[in-house]
Known about the structure:
Elements: H1 2-18, E1 22-26, E2 29-33, H2 36-58, H3 63-82, H4 86-89, H5 91-105, H6 114-119, H7 127-154, H8 157-184
Antiparallel strand pairs: 1-2
Helix pairs in contact: 1-2, 2-3, 3-5, 5-7, 7-8
Amino acid sequence: MKQLIDYIPLLVFFTVWSLDERLVSIAGFEHSIGGIFSAAEFLLVASILVYGALWLKQRRLDKFQWITFVAVILFCLPTIIFRNVEFLKWKAPIVNWLFAGIFLGSRFIGEKPAIEHMMGHAVPAPREVWQRLNLYWVFYFTILGAINLAVALLLSEALWIKFKVFGNLALTFCFVFAQMPLLAKYIDDPEADPSN
């Protein structure tokens, strides 16, 4: 559920980008809706609303939500102000590389690697498994950042945005799914008799 909530601003971004540009008048104020710069504005507002609501409800955001939220602000504002999409193109690579750095750093700082903090409550796997999975995530985020940068700089705006919204989600789903066989043997069977 948390991942779906975090995905709302990106869906708003894609929806607004998909619209044909048009002027909308509200209370005598005219504003252009549709296209990349309008989508960046809506991404910024949707992120403030979503993460603001999460913070009000939970009184906290996890570190990945904070990084994503701050990155949206840092990359959307110059995109909107300077009308230059190049700023926004660097958001996904940098955020992915920050995540890779956090996962790598967690191997040396703290008691548990980052992936165990995220999933350890649900899967009682041994430390070696969490260390290996954590390293996989370091590689994944590093490579995903490079892929996002290549797509942003080498492909058309339409392909970049479609990849940003749907490609990242599909790659992450496949990556998580590929880890299931490694974790499956450690997931408790709720029907199993604990006395056996």
